[in-house]
Every structure is written in structure tokens, then in C-alpha cells.
Here is the input.
Amino acid sequence: MKKIISFCLVLTSFMVSFGFVSCSRPKKDPNTITLWHWMTDRDKTFKELAAQYKELTGIDVQIELFAPSDSYTQKVVASAQAKILPDIYGVLDTKETFANFIKYGYIADLTQEFKKNDGEWEKELFTKALDANRFEPGNGYDVPPGIYGVPLDVTNIQMLYNKKLLKKAGYDAPPETYDEFLEMAKALKRIGVPGLVSGWGELWLADCFASNYAFNIMGEEKVMATYRGEVPYTDKDWVRVFQIFKDLVDGDVLVKGVVTKPNKEAEQDFALERAAFAFNGSWSVNVYKEINPDLEYGVILPPAISNKYPMRIWGGAGSNFVISNTSPNKEKAIAFVRWLTSQKQQAYLAEQTRNLPSNKKALSSISKVLEEFAQSMDNTTHPTIWPVNESPVVTEKYTKGLQSIIIGKKSPEEVAKEIQEVKEKEMEKEQRRK
Amino acid sequence: MSTNAAKTFNFSKLRYTLESFAFIFPAVSIFSIFYIFPFFYIFKLSLYEWNGLSPFMSFIGLENFIELMRDKIWWTSMWHACYITLIALTFQNMLAFGLALACDREIRLKKFYRVVFFLPPVLSEVVVGFIWRWVLNAGEQNGEPYGLLNFALMKSGLNHLITDWLSNPDTALTCIAIVHSWKGFGWGFIMLLAGLQTIDKQLYEAAKVDGANSWETFKNVTVPMMIPVILVVMILTVLGSMQVFVLILSMVGQGLEYEAEVPVTRILAAMTSSKQYGYACAMGVTFGAILIFISFSFKKISERMKQV
Amino acid sequence: MAKAKIPINRYQVFQSTKYLFIHIFLMSVAATCIFPLFWMVRSALMTKETIFIDKSLFPSALQWGNFVKAWIGGNFGTYFLNSLFYTFSVVVGIVIISSLAAYAFSRLRFPGKDFFFYMFVAAMMIPLPGSFVPLVVLMNKIGLVNTRLGYILCMINVGLSMSILLLKTFFDKMPSDLEDAARIDGCGKIRIWWNVALPLARPAIAVVVIFNSLNVWNEFILANLLLTDDSLMTLQTGLFKFQGPNLADYPVLMAGLTIAAIPIIIIYLFMQKHIIKGLSSGAVVG
Here is the structure.
């Protein structure tokens, strides 16, 4: 017993001294700024760039990474409440939350910075990427018009196809229409290749797929009208959107287990040629390259159902940084982000992490597949740039409804009815609030 | 004299009480700093409508609770948690009891089993979920399943049993419950084994002398002696199973509509994705009250059974 | 003689078949328990090219370098020491604080005893997720956000209730003869607790140690929430950060997971003898 106690005492004293040594944190230094982010794949590159920046300007940028991203979001929200946000961070959430952060004074207005020198900074970056951070006059969020965030890269989500598997099934070119796509999936099935894989165990990715077709079937106007409550979800166009998921199930197009698949696993499946098509974003280029460098694939828009309206894919800013409004080092923080989005640094980031740069001039340094992704940038849209957004409660019901079609529990009509019920309840609540 | 004695008595009593309080002082102070403030905060918020960020909260009284009573999805998720708990109570604890019985006798490799059966509780839930997703995977390549279970079923000619284990609403929840039980039986095993070893060996001898066969011995000696231990294992099982969620998130994510949701995942969803912070707090308060009710009724049952 | 031998043989045959079946049952369960760990180690020893293709049980060329890669690439050195430090401090803190309280709840008389005890028990039932925001606000107010001490106190709080419950049931069961003797000898309460009750409770403390070590070692949500500086972070948060750059490099990822599991297995190996003793001494008797 005595031995154990003395051993514990020695250990304790060691531990306490260890604790104290590293507890002596540096006091807030005017030449130190802090950045919080969630991008595990880019942490190393950020730190390299921060080291360069220190050599260049003497300003020390502390890069802190928090993973997984759910955990990061919780930290940012809690830190906002406690008023301990860092100089630079990102809001990983809906436009509404972004707007709330601005309204309650957690985010600095960067409009002046972007407009300086005849809009020099603004002109350097892709408009699509900036739009996610822009609030137009008269926006529905009660935010003063302006630009509040800095896009670090651009991205979009499209359909990918495996060239080798398609050839095996007798096709040289990817499908152009939705019917062709279903036809092709059938042919692939005959040679034992599943059709489409996607990480629909994550709600937003299924939402994105449905949204693409909603724009294609009924056009942007009608989608927005639905969100405003003017068109019901029981409208035949919406039922057609839900019907797509039924088609995919009936035609046995989806890989097994798609409804619980995390995107990480879906990426693995496509890279290992376990499905001929994938629905995924431009970030996946990096993953495929790592898992299977020989994978031959191309990028297409999801094949259109109707030719009344153009196919719209989700895209725009990939990740954004904002500057804390209460930071004493606001100027320095802005200067660093400005430096991070200039051509040279953007090219370096794009090259190291295989993402699409947000700086136009840095585009020349990207790979061929990424270029294919970049070509469709004009077709992109995103909830963050829409004038109205669906309430989160309805969105949850909507995405869960899509899943219930995939697992064969409900029909598209039933799902439409259920979503509409929730929508009406939400609108009633909204009325009462006013 | 007597008044004097009473005074000193009171004084020593006071000292005794103060000393006793000193014993619980560290625990109570940590508790009140780190629990009471958050608890009252949650309780207060459950009466408000709040988006989690705005400086303005609107007081709505018991409206959150009334809505919760009508929330079908919430009660479905409660049923799912109960289902997992029921499977854990029966399957997990019977497995643990069986293994403990087998290891209680003089048997070779006893120490080996004792270590090995505790490996699943040691691994983190994220790792466990990841590994079981790989086992239960329903994918196919070149017409052959590559998930371990489906592959084994195919090889043993049981093709009709092959299914999409985690994405089929009929099987998903049971799979989760079984994996949860598998992860948790180590605790039950060790506690029950310990309980078995405390049973006086003379009782077995006496039963043998009375001519009891092994089933009668089990029924009349082992089970009655084990009741208190079994009850504690059951309470801990209920607490652990009702609150399971990391395992669910790592096995099925947010998929499967509402078929694999439990109260804790509902609370998280209300807090993070639908921004109903007040509602989430009302869920937390209700859920806590239900758990307290269950545990205390277990305690009552155990007291009743002790008297019998 | 020969006649007498036959029934014995039959009995032996019966006995050994019985044991054979018991072993088959135990072995099959044991196999499922070992399997994940085996699979982790096996995957950690492959290359990222072979891991998805090679279906053999034992990979032909063992890549021990993956462990080195994981250790260096994941910056595990700092995280590892931090996690050890937190686990050790929290466990020591919990053992002292909870045994003091449990001893008082079991042996001493004071007003409000039942109230305080049931308060701790009830606290076990409140689900954690709702309390994130208030916790951070509170920690910031008392200046403990982003400090080792703050995280340690929070984790002590998390494990406190369960430990008090376990230790109290143990003390309740313990005979008080020795303590009475010590009291007659003139020992104060603190001395009785330290010199008599704690040594007797050593087995039960082993239970508390293993339970809380597991809890602290595998925790990452509060660590992410309360700590900011990378130099204060724990191994579990490090593992999540590590996943990004190695998303596709499964063997290295598996090596990282294996490294993270080893210390806790070692703690269990050391403690399991005491656990058996501890529980058999009555810690679980409600």
C-alpha cells in the first residue's frame, strides 16, 4: 500500500509540474491572431502558409483545427454565446444562422474592404463564391446589405461516371437525359454493376439531389414560391421530384444501403468501382486520387428530366472565413485573409488540396477533372444565394421524406402530403409570431 | 449540570455535523458549479422559444411540453430506445449471465476469457460502429456481396437470408440493439461473475446432500442469491441503453427516416439542424424525468424483492 | 474392477463433452470480441494499395512503419501525454472526492443526507447534449475555459455521480467493526476514512478507476468544446483531426486507432483482478 501511495505521489508531482509548464499560455499579443477551422484536409497547408506569413510580416497566425465538423459547429455557437470567438472563423451552417451571427454582432462587415481601390479584391474572386457571403438590399434576413465573408475556394456537386464500367456495358458516352440514365443503369445491372452511389445517410446530400431536379422540373420561380408558401408541396411538379427517388428504387439503380451511407463510404465505393455513377462534390477529386489513382471518370450535370428549365446544381463558395466583429485585431485579421485569397496562395492551396480556388487567376494550376467541374460553375445555385429559404423544420421533414421513399415505407404522394402538413403548421406559427 | 451537559452535547453535535459536511463539501461544490447552473439554464430554456443565438427569447410557458406530448416522432424515438433497452435487458444480460456461469466453474483459460470479454467495452463507440458497418455492409461487387455477413451467408448457401441489414427498417434497429448488447455485455459479465463467486460454496454442498440436481440447485440456490446483483446490472443496462446515440450515429448516420431515431438524437437534431433550442431543452427535461422514474421504480422493486 | 471402471469412463466422457461444449460456446463469443481488435491491427499492417484487395487473414508483408507514420503524422506525442495527464488527474480527483462523499453518505449522520445523495443519483439521468452552451458560458465566466484545470473539473463532475453510487453501496456492505475499533482508539473521521475505509475499499476503487479511465480516455466532445489550444488537446480529438489528411490511407488510420486503444487495455489488464475482487466484495449489491 505504502509503495503504491509513494508511487502515486511521485507521479502526481510529475503530472502537476507538467500541467503547470504548459499552462503558462502567452498573454494576448497584438501581433498574434487566431483562426479556427474545421477542414482536416487543409490544416497542414494552412499552417505552412501561416509560417510563410509570419516570415513575411511578423504576424503570428495561430491555426486551430476542430474535428469532427459537428463538434466544430457546437463550439462556434457556444463560444459566440460566451463571447470568446477567435479573430477569424467560419460559420458552418445555413444562411439564416449566418445572418443571425451578423445581426447579433459577431461578424464584421467587409464591404468597405472589398470595394477599396475600385473593388480590387472583389474583382479577383469568383462572383459565385462571393454571392454566398453577400446580402442584397431588401434581403429576407433583415441584414444590412454588404459582404460579410471571404470565400476560400469554390465547389460544386455533380454526377460522376466511371468510364471503364460504362464502356463495359456498351456505352461510350455518358447519359444526356434522365431516361437514358435509367436505361444505362439497367444495362449496367445486367453485367452486375450497381448504378448510383451517394452519401444519402447525410441529409443535405439527398436534399441537394432533389433540389437539382426541382429546379429542372419547375424552375427557380416556382421553387421559391413554394418556400414562401404560395405553392403547396402536393403540386404535381413536386410529386414528380419525389417520384424520381421511387424511380431509382424501382429501377434498382441505387447501390444497396445508400440510405445510411456516410459520404466518406460512398466516395470509397465509387473509387473502388463498386458503382458506375456517383453524386458528389468537387472535393472528392482528392479522395479518388488517393484511393485509386487509376480511376478513369468524367463529370456531368445530373441528366435532365425536362427541357423546360435548365438543370441547376449546387455550388459556389466551398468554405468561407469571417472576421470577428469584436476582435481587437480586425485590421490584421482582414489583411491575412486578403493575403490567403491572393493568386499565389490560392494556387498553392489548390495544388496542395486539389480544390477549386476562389481566385480567378489561380485557375490555371488545376487538374483536368477539376477543370470539368469548373466548367459547370455557371450552372450553379445554392440555398445561400436564394432570396428565401425553407424553414429548418420543414427541410428536416422533407429530407426524411425522401429517405422514407427510398426505404419503401411511403409513396411520393404520401410524402408530399406530410411535408405540406408540417409546412402549414410552420406558417401558422410564423403568423402568430408576427 | 444537566444544562451544561446539554450545551456541550449540542456543541459536539454541531461539530460532528460540520465535519460530516466537510466530507461531502468537495463533491457538492463541484456538483453545484458544474451541474446546477446548466441544469437551471436548461429548465428555464424549456419554457422559452429560442433559436440558440439570438439575444431575445420569448417566454411561451408550457407550450414546448404540450407540443412534445403531441410529437409522434418523439414518442416513436422513445419506443426505439425502449426496444434497444429491452433487447439489452434480455439478450445482453442473458448472454452475460450464461458466460459468467460458464466461467464460474473451475475451467481452463478462465483468465483469458475474463480479459477477452471485456475488450468490446474498451473500444470507443465510433470504432465499434465503423467495424460493424463493414461487417453488415450490403454492397455488391461483380455480383458478389462484400460485406462480411452477407458474404458468409452466400458461402453457406443461405442466399435467401441476405438483406440490406442497416438500411432495411425491419432489421436496422435490431442490428443496432445487438451490436449495443455485444459492446455492453462485458460489464454485466464481470459483475455477475463477481456475484457468483461470492456465493457460499457450502450452499451448493448442502443442496447436493439434499439430492438436488443441477437445475434445482441453479433455481433454488444460484438465482435467489444473485437477485441483488442482477438488479444493479439491470439498472445500469437501462441507463446505458436509453441514452445510446454515438453508436447509432456511427452505424446509420441520419439515415433511415425516423426508423433509427432515439430521444438523444432527436434532442441533437432539434438543437443543431432545426434550431429549436427551447424545444430541445424541453425534450431533455422530459427524458431526464422519465429516466429518473424508471430508475427509482427499479430501486423500489429491488427493495420489495429483498423483503421477500 | 473392470465393472467399476466403465461408469467412471462414461462419467469422464460426459464431463469432457460438457466442457467441450462450454468451451465452444465461450470461444465463439471470445472470437467476436477479439475480432475487431484483430481486424484493426491487421488493417494497420497493410498498405493502402492492398487493404481493399487483399482478403487473406494475415497480410504477407507487415507494414510496421504505419504505426510510426501515425505517431509522427498525427502529432500523437503531445496528445498522448495530455490524455494520460487528464485521465490520471480526473481519476485521482474522482477517487478522492467520491470516496469522501460516499463514506459520509454511508457512515455519517447529518441533515439533508438523503436529499444530497438522491441529487447525485438523479444527476446521472439528465442527458448531456443540452448543457453545452451553458457550460461554455459558465467556464468562461470563471476563467477556466481553455485551461487544463477547467477540463479536469468538468470531467470529474461527469464521473462523480456514478462513482459515489458505486462506492456508497460498497461502504454500506462493509462491516464497520474495524472502524469502531479505530474510533475507540481515538482516531478522527478523516483518519478512519484514510487508514481504514479506503484500504478496505481498494477493490471497489479499482472499479471506479477503470470506469472513469474509459470515460475520460474516449471523451472528445467536451474536450473540443472547452479547449482551444492544440497543445492542450486530447488523443481522441487528435484522432479526428488525423482522419482528414489520411482519409484514404486506411492502414495509417487503423494504426492510429490501435495506438489509442492500447493504454486503456493495459489499464484494464492491471485493474481487472481488483475488479473481480472489488465487485465480489459487494460493490454492486444494491
